[in-house]
Amino acid sequence: MDGNLKPTRYIRAIIFFLLYYCVLSLLYYVATTFFYDKPKYINLIVFASLFIIELSFVFFLKLSIFNVILKIRLVLIYFTVGILLGFLNSILSKSQFIDFGSRINDDSFLPVFLSIVILSPIVEELYYRYFIFERVLKTTPLNISIIFSSVLFSLIHLKFDNMSLSLISLIKPFILGVILCFVFKKHKNIVYCIVMHIAYNIIWFIT
What we know:
By secondary structure, the chain is an all-alpha fold. The chain is 74% helix and 2% strand.
């Protein structure tokens, strides 16, 4: 059997996904238990903790995650692509823009913005694109690794509407995951993926 087709790495990817989900659930449990009276900080605490855990693994494994050679033109291009994808998502979801002025004046604005718009994309790109796609599935066929890692990425965003599975909550992150995999494969620089994901979440945040 071709070594590239052995299921070992797929099983390993699933195990790492389940581990990520368990850690995420545990962090939410701990955060809601100890900070139940400050719900606006819960997401921030969870994603900041995940970021610290990821950085600890990076340091322990001596991984080089950030390519310091960045092209401003590409940063702007992928930020724009993220914005456009965010708008497309809003249109398909029939979302309406909020009163941004009132959102800024809300005392929960900063912790929610930092957690959802900044930390969440960083954590997810490091885990799903750099770790799962690039390292765990590195020796698997490209198309399969893109699809497999994107499916895992979409599963973490799974939602239920009225106790029924929301397929749209699977499809949209799956497509975003596929695009981000191609971006990372092309440039081998996770920063472009993070910038694009942040831009996407900015539009999601204000709609």
